[in-house]
Design a protein that fits this description.
By secondary structure, the protein is α+β, with helices and mostly antiparallel strands. It is built from 2 helices and 4 strands.
Length: 113
């Protein structure tokens, strides 16, 4: 029997006008975010994910960009971003960076107690 913990944080995914948002894309991105940040769920109230597409100044190729903002209970938001060749890689990279940043912030808070 597979029992999954219910996630209480609100996850909102938005795209710029160069990316067609869909329920499949939203579901994929939410899944990536939850897999990276699930253990921090108690501390988070909201996650905002912003996806965009841009041309690289150095290569001229399209790059996918992801900015993730995590809102900790009673604290200012923490932001992380990543750029990659796919939206999935950019979101996973940004979520990993956010997790590291949140771990650091929460570690400092617990050290001050």
């Amino acid at each position: 029997m597979n029992i999954q913990k219910e996630i209480s944080m609100h996850i909102e995914v938005s795209t710029d006008n160069s990316i067609e948002g869909s329920e499949a894309l939203n579901s994929l991105i939410r899944g990536l975010v939850v897999s990276e940040l699930a253990r921090l769920d108690y501390h988070l109230t909201r996650i905002e994910v912003h996806l965009s597409k841009a041309r690289s100044a150095s290569t001229g190729q399209e790059e996918m960009h992801c900015v993730i903002e995590g809102r900790l209970k009673g604290r200012k938001p923490v932001v992380a971003n990543d750029t990659a060749t796919t939206l999935e890689k950019a979101a996973k990279g940004a979520a990993g960076k956010l997790k590291s940043s949140l771990d650091s912030t929460l570690g400092k808070l617990s050290d001050n107690r």
